[in-house]
UniProtKB/TrEMBL annotation:
Coiled coil: none annotated. The gene is Vdhap. InterPro entries: Amidase_dom, AS_sf, Endocannabinoid_amidase. It comes from Oreocharis arfaki (tit berrypecker). One of its GO terms (molecular function) is fatty acid amide hydrolase activity. Residues 5-212 form the Amidase domain. SUPFAM superfamilies: Amidase signature (AS) enzymes. One of its GO terms (biological process) is fatty acid catabolic process. It comes from the Eukaryota. It holds the Pfam family Amidase. This is VDHAP protein.
Length: 215
């Protein structure tokens, strides 16, 4: 409910992840509770979630419903996290603003006359507005870090190849810099907890290209 309130004000959510309520009920019945048990998690639009589109802010991807969760979404669920919304990004994701022709312009909740930054502008606006406590995005040249700066949040771009990268919509650019998935939150302790949860045996098994390593 809080996320929808924030979205009405700043236009930051692109999709509600159906099935998140069912996942919560399933988690309650499990004996082992993961490190992220019961935490609702917002996800950058281009990270694949089963049954949803990863638009990348581009019309060409709108008809392509994904058939399976990306590795990072599988691991978040394994650790008890509940991905519940996807959030807005600029078209092609290579922009310091957050606007596209599909979902429109996202505003900064701290000052609606300003941009929340990009490309993770939807995440920055949602978390800063109080609609999410933990978000997952990707960063090549500042996509996580810039919106965090614009919105007064904490974030981390992990070391290259430390987290499984597959399961994102294709970028139209050939990138020579390693893009990394990483967390965004209101405090550093939340980032540390998220990284501890992600760097687990399940991720290393699902993606053998990621070297097994502790936090």
């Amino acid at each position: 409910g809080e996320a929808l309130e924030v979205n009405r004000e700043v236009n930051c959510v692109t999709d509600f992840i159906h099935g998140c309520e069912d996942q919560l009920q399933k988690l309650k019945k499990q004996k082992e509770k993961g490190l992220l048990y019961g935490i609702p998690i917002s996800i950058k639009d281009h990270i694949n979630c089963k049954g949803h589109v990863s638009s990348g802010g581009m019309l060409k991807f709108l008809g392509q419903v994904k058939e399976e969760d990306s590795v990072i979404v599988q691991v978040l669920k394994h650790q008890g996290g509940i991905p519940f919304v996807k959030t807005n990004i600029p078209q092609t994701m290579i922009n310091y603003n957050c606007s596209n022709l599909i979902f429109g312009q996202t505003l900064n909740p701290l000052n609606p006359q300003k941009s929340p930054g990009g490309s993770l502008g939807g995440e920055g606006a949602l978390i800063a507005g109080g609609g999410s406590i933990l978000g997952i995005g990707s960063d090549v040249a500042g996509s996580i870090r810039l919106p965090s700066s614009f919105c007064g949040l904490c974030s981390l771009k992990p070391t290259g190849n430390s987290i499984s990268p597959p399961g994102c919509s294709d970028s139209p650019f050939a990138l020579t810099v390693t893009g990394m998935l990483g967390p965004m939150a209101r405090d550093v302790d939340s980032l540390a907890l998220c990284m501890e949860a992600l760097l687990c045996q399940q991720m290393f098994q699902l993606d053998p290209t990621v070297p097994p390593h502790p936090l």
